[in-house]
Structure prediction request, 64 residues.
Amino acid sequence: MTMEVIVSYVLIVVSWLGGAVNGAAVSTQEFTSAERCEAARLALAQDAKARGLEDALRPICLQK
Prediction:
């Protein structure tokens, strides 16, 4: 019998969309693969750039 190791990845998004007065907001989302996490991170970064908000958003993927 072999044990299967399940690795998950977490997308952590830190945003300052409310400005310095409201402070940073942190949100997380769990993914089953690094590829899915990275795809979501890139989509968020592209959307932020299209809206001119790339400096107000920091998405990163980490292994859980």
